[in-house]
Amino acid sequence: MSFENFNLHPSIVAGVRALGYTTPTPIQVQSIPPIMQGRDIIGLAQTGTGKTAAFVLPVLQHLLQLPRGRIGAAIISPTRELAEQTCEAIDELGKKTGLRSIAVYGGVGMDQQIRRLRSGVEIVVACPGRLLDHLWKGTINLSNLEVLVIDEADRMFDMGFLPDIKNILKCLIKPRQTLLFSATMPNDIRRLVQDTLHNPVTVQIGRSAPAATVSHALYPVKQHLKTALLIELLHRHETESVLVFTRTKHRAEKVAQQLKKARFRATSLHGNLTQGRRQAALDDFRTGSVKILVATDIAARGIDVLSISHVINYDMPESTDAYTHRIGRTGRVDKKGDALTFVTSADSALVQDIEHILKATIERRTLKGFDYAVAAPVKLYA
Ligand code: AMP
Questions:
Q1: In angstroms, what is the span from residue 294 Cα to ligand 1's centroid?
Q2: pTM above 0.70, yes or no
Q3: What is the DSSP string of 46-72?
Q4: What pLDDT, in 10s, does the model give residues 24-36?
Q5: Which CATH architecture has domain 3-204?
Q6: Which residues contact 242 (CB under 8 A, 6 or more apart)?
Q7: In this predicted structure, what is the pLDDT of residue 377?
Q8: Which of 35, 64, 119, 128 is the most exposed place for a label (fewest CB within 10 A)?
């Protein structure tokens, strides 16, 4: 199977080649033909499977046949980072098509977005809240919309965006085609599908389990020794680029500062940073000038850096799905990745659940020579 089989327009095939894709991934093989036939799709696929291109390529193909300067496709994304990255994928894959896209999200002024929307774009990639703002203000025109993509629907549901999505759907004259992608299918998303999609084709790539190219290990450790263990591991492991997950924004900031003090090229990514600083952190990580990014789950959504060699869970994620999402950042399309997770005694139930979806026991490791016996600092109360 090759990209030529899809009968994509030569200008799109040129974009695929420029990105160096040679063979379509399974989700692309299964979704591109029905999407090109105009079918609605439920894509059950985790990140790292190539799902973005699975919808971007047929969307580009569709829009090539439409008049320019009108929004023909809208993609709803849970986070600004994912919106930016999807936009980048569209720009890269569609470079030779002349189709224009814009990412629309909150936390930045509306004026510039309005100017770009007025200047004429064909694709909008938007976070739900800001898209609603534009719809209610009348600063976006979706009356010519032909394709609606709801990306990472389960994550949007986790983040409480479902009411916004329903409101957006109410504002739309029924789009011709709706594509919904989700790593899992909780009941609320199932209902949304029933109400919104018309006779959809379901495409499922694996179960909601992490990619097979990732190797997993657990490091049992006491909470107060996590930073020391992290520093020791980073010293001893050959790492290309490392994504460290913490449970809170405060901890992401603190751990990044501690790594910097230990002379690692590290930075943080979390919701307390301005949009400018978040973008700078992502850019530095992508270009390799920063090797270690310490992030919270929500901030790290959609991080798409092909060479992430290690994901380190400084804190255990909150659910097996969150584990899958985190781990999806490494081991992308045929690349090998390592997922190292620090566990305390409080995490044992979740460890069991993760082992259940992996259908394997995860190796427990202790770091030779590391002093696990250091006592916790005594807290002094005034
Ligand atoms: P996604 O699941 O959309 O986040 O894609 C994961 C990564 O795989 C991205 O970096 C894509 O650029 C890359 N990718 C997507 N399709 C292919 C393909 N057919 N061959 C190689 N890499 C791909």
A1: 23
A2: no
A3: -TTSSHHHHHHHHHHHHHHTS-TTS--
A4: 988 999 999 999 9
A5: 3-Layer(aba) Sandwich (3.40)
A6: 234, 291, 292, 293, 308, 309, 310, 311, 312
A7: 82
A8: 119
pLDDT at 207 exceeding the cut of 50: no
Tokens 């499922």 belong to residue: 204
Atom of ligand 1 nearest to the CA of 305: 10
Chain segment 9-55, per-residue pLDDT in tens: 999 999 999 988 888 988 999 999 999 999 999 998 877 788 999 99
Ligand 1 pocket member 152 (CB < 6 A) = no
Architecture of domain 214-364: 3-Layer(aba) Sandwich (3.40)
Same topology for domains 3-204 and 214-364, yes or no?
yes
- Tell me the mean pLDDT in the region 107-111: 92
CA of 36 to the centre of ligand 1 (A): 19
User: Which run of H or of E encompasses 168?
Assistant: helix 162-171
Q: Which amino acid is at 278?
A: R
Mean of per-residue pLDDT scores for the chain: 89
- Domain limits, the chain: 3-204, 214-364
| Residue type at position 275 | Q
